[in-house]
# Entry
Amino acid sequence: QYIILSKISTLKRLDLSFNKLNFFPKILCDLNNIECLILTGNFLTENDFPLEVQKYNKLNEINIDKNSLKKIPKALVLASSSTLKFFSLNENNISDLKHLSKFTKLK
# Structure
């Protein structure tokens, strides 16, 4: 169901809010022009992000509010720690913020 979306190579903003996702579709990792990723209101945990998310090296905004995160997903740290300016993690169960210091451009 994500195959058509994965072919839009110029896509810069991806909003999959409130889609009851319990994993991040690996096929969407080929959208390497994504600058804004919004995943609010799903059922995602830190283990639901494939390492291929590292291809999102242009990310400057991530919103993963209202999910089931206990820590910042490693794949997102690797993908965006040097480019990310806005990172929202509201209404999760985050208890481990050790990777937060790697995001050097947060405002």
The mean pLDDT is 89. Residues 43 and 67 are 5 Å apart (CA to CA). Helices lie at 3-6, 74-80.
